[in-house]
Each structure stands twice: as C-alpha cells, then as structure tokens.
Write a structure and sequence with these properties.
Length: about 260
C-alpha cells in the first residue's frame, strides 16, 4: 500500500528549499520527520511482539513521511510530555490519538481532524457496560482509572467528580488495575477500549456499544511554523481524497488483521 501511495498521490509540488520556518528547515536539511507518539494507545500506536511501533498513527505517519520524501523517525514519548516535547523542538509534529481541544489549540496548531473518536469505558461489569450517560458513573462507590494529562482525565473530573479517580501513565497500567480488581472502569477513547476488549476476551473485559461523546483527533504542530502546518495540511487532505485514511481506519479499527502482531 505504501508503494502504491507514492505512485498514486498527485498533488502540487512543494519545494522545502529556502523555507525559513525552523522545523521545516530542519526537516529539509536532515531529510527526517520526527513524529511524537506514545506507542501505548492501541490501536492508534502500540508495540508489536517484535518491539516495533505499529498502529493507525504509525502507518499514517509513515505514509505522510513518504509523501513528503523524507524518512520517518517515531519518537516514543509519554502522553503528558508530548506537548512539552513539541514546544521544546524535540519533535516536529504529534500524531498520537490527540483530541483537538480549545485548551490545546491555544498552545499548538492542529491539522485535521483526520479521524473522529469519543469517550467510552472498559470494564468487567455487565452493569457498567450498559452505561448510556456519564451521570450513571458519578458516585463515590465507583473507581475510575484514566490516562494522566489526557482529555479522559478532564472528562472524568468534570462529568464524574464524585467517583474515585486514579491517574495512570499508560493504558497497560489501567488494564492491569481492571484485571486485578483495583479499579472498576477505565475511561478512554472508544477505539482504545474496543481494542482492549478485543485483545483480552479471556479477561472478561467489555466496552460500550456506542461512545459517550464525539471527539476530533488531529495532528499537533508548533504555531511558530505556519509553512510546516500548511505543508502537512495539504498532504493530509490529499491522502484523505485518495482514500488512504479510510483504508487505514478499516485496517486498524474494523478488520483486526493485525492482532497476531501483538497477541502472544
């Protein structure tokens, strides 16, 4: 598919030479695109059994880099530190299932959305799996686990302030807490909850049939680089027009053809 993209994508030619924006100039000089992602947000990004980083965002980053004519360098960073890494210039862009919010948009620019997500829950309780409104989870007897620094943390604190909320550094920790009975619910994006339920059916993990909210996911870029923003926006629009985004969504969110890469 990647090789087909290089042949199929016909778009306006962008020359990187002479562009003064710092990140775009660095990408041009180094021939490398540094993309920050957690590698712990399946199916957006995760570690395969061989240690490689795979997922929807990983594939999309590869297609984007190949379309730009540069090498891809995935930089693995914990979610709470992604925006800081972008601000410090340690990475060029963020592609890590990041929801576009007003608060984040005051710090960085976004290209997208390239996919829509929404908040959901992962649980072992059939009662909780029938939840239709967040108010049903707002009780001091309910224990929640959420990713630190994520919109799930904000959502849980706003919608379920009476619940007991535990902050985790990654989703593996939250899933282990569920399996060990240390929490009742993991609050996360719908695709992540669906993935965990799909991979761990023997653990009795279940999720909602429909997400509780709708959230746009985008590519975060430094506001100091409007030309890089413009370049990425044009390539992403082109990839959407020729069906690459639809194909990746089917592969990573519907088909399950990649499960053998992560399941022992």
């Amino acid at each position: 598919m990647m090789k087909t993209v290089l042949i199929a994508v016909i778009m306006v030619s962008f020359s990187l030479n002479g562009m003064a924006q710092k990140n775009l100039a660095r990408i041009n000089e180094s021939g490398e695109l540094r993309v920050g992602m957690t590698a712990s947000q399946p199916p957006f990004s995760m570690k395969a059994l061989d240690g490689s980083i795979i997922g929807y965002d990983a594939d999309l980053a590869m297609v984007l880099a190949e379309s730009m004519g540069v090498k891809l360098n995935i930089v693995e960073i914990p979610f709470p530190k992604l925006l800081g890494a972008l601000e410090n210039g340690d990475i060029d862009i963020i592609m890590s299932g990041m929801t576009i919010t007003m608060e984040r948009n005051m710090k960085v620019a976004f290209v997208g959305p390239y996919i829509l997500s929404g908040k959901s829950i992962l649980t072992r309780s059939t009662e909780f799996s029938k939840t239709e409104e967040s108010e049903q989870l707002n009780a001091n007897t309910v224990r929640l686990a959420v990713l630190k620094g994520s919109t799930s943390e904000t959502y849980a604190k706003m919608e379920m302030p009476d619940a007991e909320i535990a902050l985790v550094d990654n989703y593996d920790d939250a899933v282990n807490m569920l399996i060990e009975g240390k929490t009742d619910i993991m609050v996360a994006d719908f695709p992540i909850c669906a993935y965990e339920a799909l991979v761990h059916p023997e653990k009795g993990l279940i999720t909602l049939a429909e997400p509780l909210t709708i959230e746009p996911i985008g590519v975060a870029i430094s506001p100091d680089d409007p030309l890089l923003l413009n370049l990425v926006q044009n390539y992403m629009s082109s990839l959407a027009m020729i069906g690459i985004l639809d194909a990746l969504e089917i592969k990573w969110f519907e088909s399950g053809v990649w499960l053998d890469l992560v399941k022992e």
